[in-house]
Design goal:
The structure is a single chain. The chain is mostly helical. The protein is built from 2 helices and 2 strands.
């Protein structure tokens, strides 16, 4: 009977050890599942942050493009203003020249035409002969 008792005791001990191993394996599996779930949540949070960063980068890129367009438009406006200023300056110079020419008294400076002498030695063009 001692053998049966020993056998029964070993069987009970073996069953208890097996149950303890199963419980340990279950605890390890639960911890691994919990760690996997935690890592999955961290990965999703990181992906969300990356998505927001990418959207922010796109938004900044669009704003940079718009700023570049506005800069180009401002440069064209500045060039137009310079051209208009140069044209206005040219008109002012022309206006001054015209004003100067119009204010000159040509009647005082106009010279009388010189008399032409014909082949007979007489001056022509200065006296009108009304006798006929």
């Amino acid at each position: 009977m001692a053998v049966a008792s020993l056998s029964s005791s070993q069987s009970t001990s073996s069953a208890g050890l097996q149950q303890l191993q199963q419980m340990q394996a279950q605890r390890n599996a639960d911890q691994a599942a919990q760690r996997a779930s935690s890592l999955q949540a961290q990965a999703q949070a990181a992906q969300s942050v990356a998505n927001r960063a990418q959207e922010n980068a796109r938004s900044i890129s669009v704003e940079a493009s718009q700023a570049g367009s506005q800069s180009a438009q401002a440069q064209r406006g500045l060039q137009s203003m310079r051209s208009i200023s140069e044209l206005q300056s040219g008109f002012d110079n022309l206006r001054q020249q015209i004003s100067s020419v119009l204010s000159t008294d040509f009647s005082a400076t106009t010279a009388q035409p010189a008399a032409v002498i014909n082949t007979s030695g007489q001056e022509t063009g200065t006296t009108i002969n009304v006798t006929a």
